[in-house]
Design a protein that fits this description.
- The chain has 125 residues and is α+β, with helices and mostly antiparallel strands.
- The chain has a single domain (36-124), classed as Winged helix-like DNA-binding domain superfamily/Winged helix DNA-binding domain (Arc Repressor Mutant, subunit A), CATH 1.10.10.
- The protein contains five helices and two strands.
- The chain has helices at residues 12-31, 37-48, 54-61, 65-74, 107-121, and strands at residues 89-94, 97-105.
- It has a two-stranded antiparallel ribbon with strand order 1-2.
- A hairpin with a 2-residue loop joins strand 1 (89-94) and strand 2.
- The radius of gyration is 18 Å and the shape is elongated.
- The model has no long low-confidence stretch (mean pLDDT 91).
Length: 125
């Protein structure tokens, strides 16, 4: 059977939506061709809830604090292997709670978020 003989399980709008999503993920794959989706999710959560700590972000992701901490290291300044991370986030000590570190986007992370949003919404962002 040829490809033309198969009927798509998805509507044209659904295929268009998936193509838009794939296009929006492209900036991540530009950083690393085999980008783990867990790091993408951690970045998006950090961007959505900037200023929260590891514990709060871990709860939002449904992950243990240790796993979220590793993800944040990987997308931060320095990864868990003490090598350069992606540099999308950084952590600042909370002056009121010295044991707590708040996660914020770096300029590189903000630029990445804008690339993703432009891909999703066109020139509207």
């Amino acid at each position: 059977m040829s490809a033309e003989q198969f009927r798509s399980s998805l509507t044209d709008d659904e295929r268009k939506g998936l193509a838009t999503l794939l296009n929006a993920l492209e900036p991540f794959f530009g950083e690393r061709q085999t980008m783990p989706m867990q790091l993408v999710k951690s970045f998006i959560l950090a961007a959505l809830h900037e200023g929260e700590g590891v514990t709060e972000l871990a709860k939002r992701a449904g992950l243990s604090q240790s796993v979220m901490s590793r993800h944040l290291l990987d997308i931060g300044d320095r990864n868990r292997h003490m090598e350069a991370g992606f540099g999308w986030t950084t952590q600042h000590t909370d002056p009121m709670e010295l044991r707590k570190h708040r996660v914020v986007l770096t300029p590189k992370g903000t630029a990445l978020a804008h690339k993703v949003l432009r891909a999703l919404f066109g020139g509207k962002r």
